[in-house]
Amino acid sequence: MRIVFFGSSVFSVPSLKKISGSVAAVVTKRARPKGRGYQIDDNEVKKAALELNLPLIEIDSFKDEAARSIAVHRPDLFVVISFGLIVPKWALDIPSIGPVNIHPSLLPLYRGPSPMQWALLNGDRETGISFIRMNEKMDEGDVIFQERTEIREDDDYTGLSRRLAARSADILSGIVDRLEREPVIKGEAQDHSRATYSRIVTKEMGKIDWSSSAREIGCRIRAFVEWPAAYTFLDGKRLKIYHSVVDETSPYDQSPGTITAVTRSGLEVATGKGLLTITDLQLENKKRMKAYDFSRGYRDLRGNLLN
Description:
Helix 4 (115-121) runs antiparallel to helix 6. The chain has two domains: 3-194, Rossmann fold (3-Layer(aba) Sandwich); 203-296, Formyl transferase, C-terminal domain (Methionyl-tRNA Fmet Formyltransferase, Chain A, domain 2). The chain has helices spanning 13-18, 44-51, 89-92, 115-121, 157-181, 214-223, 291-296, and strands at 3-6, 23-29, 56-59, 77-81, 98-103, 126-133, 142-150, 230-234, 237-247, 259-263, 266-270, 275-283, 289-290. It contains seven helices and 13 strands.
C-alpha cells in the first residue's frame, strides 16, 4: 500500500505517525512568514515528516507546479486530514483505490473548517469522527466509517482535539489494513438535508456578551481556548479567559459583567443567567495566571464591570 498523506495541523500528526510505514509522500501547506520579524515557523506536519524521513511536498495551492509531482509517487490511497485546502478532482482521481478524508464530526453535521469549535460552542453533548470517500465537494463524500464520542463537561478545544486526533489515528490504522485486504472503498451516502456547517473562526467571535447565560459563556471559553481565546475588557484592557466554572443556580442582583466576589477559586462574575467563576486569565501585556493570583495584584476588583 502506497499512501500520499495530506495534512497541515497538529491534529494530523498522530495519524501520520501511525501509518508512516506506508506513506510514500506527505503534502502540506507551505508555511507563511508571520509576526513582527516575519519568521517562518514550520507546521507540525512538516516537522513530523522530516523526523520520519518522508518525502515532503509543500504547496500554497494545487496550481503550484509542486502539486503535479504527487502522481510521481504512484499512490494507491490518499489520506486527507486537517489539510486546509480543497483537493481538486484531477488530484482526487490519482490514487488507484481512492481518497479518504477524516473529519472530526458526525457528518453531515458541522461540515467545514471548525467542527470541534462549533460543537463546543453550541454546547453539544456528543461529537464523533467520520471517515469519508472524498469527492470534489466539501465534506459531502460517502461515509465509510463513523464513531460517536461523548463531549465531557470539562472538555475544551485542546483536550477534545487531542482525544479525537489519537482516536482517528487508531481507526485509520484499521481502515488501511482493511483496504489492503479488500481495496474497494464502499460507503453510505450522507443525508444532505441534515447538513450543518461550521464557519471559520474569527478573532471577533471570542468577544464575551455578559448578558448571555453562564453556560453559553462557558461554552465560548471552552471552544476558543487556543484561538482567539474568549475575551472581555477590564478598565479598557483586553482580558483573555482560558478556564471558568459555570454555576447556573446561585442568586445575585448585580448587572451582567459585574465582578460579584473574589475568592480563592477565582473571580465570580454575574451573567444573564447564573454566575461564572473565572479561574484562568491573562490581562493585556501580562502573562497568563490563576485568577486569584491576578486579584492579589489588582486592587478593588469586586464591583468592577467587565464589558
